[in-house]
Design goal:
Blueprint: E1 8-19, E2 31-39, E3 50-51, E4 54-56, H1 59-65, E5 71-72, H2 79-96, E6 101-103, H3 112-127, H4 133-139, E7 142-145, E8 150-156, E9 165-173, E10 187-193, H5 195-204, H6 211-220, H7 226-233, E11 244-247, E12 252-255, E13 266-270
Parallel strand pairs: 1-9, 5-7
Antiparallel strand pairs: 1-2, 1-4, 2-3, 2-10, 6-7, 8-9, 11-12, 12-13
């Protein structure tokens, strides 16, 4: 029997905003939009896929977790809970330039102008490993806004896969006027898109959507606005989902726990070749 690969701990954020603009048909859709990116085709995991910003926890994320002066909203969380949230904010900043933080001692998040200055000064160096997120926070007297993140989902790659992740999904309202942009390295495009449009793109072939992303978009698309999406999951237990894959006569099948609250329990995911 092949050895089961240990999953890497990772985080991702669904950055949300409300869109009440009229569509091409002139009708206002009042839809949520979420920030998504296209993974570079040379990335080993989910290459070319449309995904939410995120990535693996690193040593500096754990170092920040031990320094309470660098974050707010971590009450009651252990090191693991803190690290998942810290990594989510760091990866989002690295991959999109959007920063969920506050000036030290302030109640409001950093405004778009200040966030842009911090991005210009530190984002590239952080992505290249020339500085650390803890150093960026300390030098700019910032406090991570962990309280802005609401746990939304928990997905674990099936045991049959050679590369596995144990990933927490969070939702957060996007900071006003921080529009975000892909880095051109790990991702090659970025877009604010409604769950409806993303799912339609997945069906038409415009987008490549991983299975967990599709399930999450369907769930998110049921909410009329950002406030409702955030309130939906506050205080609710999150059921971990590790899909079980089986082969059938016509293809492959994935089974997930019904109590996780998605759009089904058994899914056909492709024909055998």
């Amino acid at each position: 029997m092949a050895e089961i690969a240990a999953p890497r701990l990772a985080s991702t954020i669904l950055l949300l905003r409300d869109n009440t603009d009229a569509g091409v048909d002139g009708k206002s859709r009042n839809e949520i939009e979420v920030f998504m990116m296209v993974r570079h085709h040379q990335i080993e995991f989910n290459s070319g896929a449309l995904v939410f910003p995120g990535g693996s926890i690193d040593a500096d994320d754990r170092a920040i977790a031990a320094r309470a002066e660098l974050y707010s909203g971590g009450e009651g969380l252990d090191e693991a809970g803190l690290s998942f949230r810290i990594a989510a904010i760091r990866e989002t900043f690295e991959e999109s330039g959007i920063l969920l933080a506050r000036p030290k001692g302030a109640a409001a998040r950093v405004d778009a102008g200040r966030a842009g200055q911090i991005e210009a000064a530190h984002r590239a160096a952080l992505g290249e490993g020339k500085t650390t997120f803890s150093q960026v926070l300390a030098d700019n007297e910032l406090v991570l806004a962990l309280d802005e993140l609401v746990p939304y989902a928990h997905w674990i790659t099936p045991e049959t896969m050679p590369k596995r992740f144990d990933t927490w999904f969070f939702v957060a309202a996007a900071p006003p006027d921080q529009l975000g942009a892909h880095d051109g390295k790990e991702s090659t495009d970025s877009i604010w898109v409604s769950p409806r449009e993303a799912l339609e793109g997945g069906e038409s072939g415009r987008f490549k959507l991983p299975f967990p992303t599709t399930r999450t978009l369907i769930k998110l698309g049921k909410q009329p606005n950002v406030k409702a999406a955030l309130e939906e999951m506050k205080g609710k237990p999150i059921v971990a989902v590790m899909p079980v894959m089986t082969k059938t006569a016509t293809g492959r099948q994935l089974r997930i726990p019904r109590e996780a609250g998605y759009d089904g329990e058994v899914f056909e995911v492709g024909a055998t070749g």
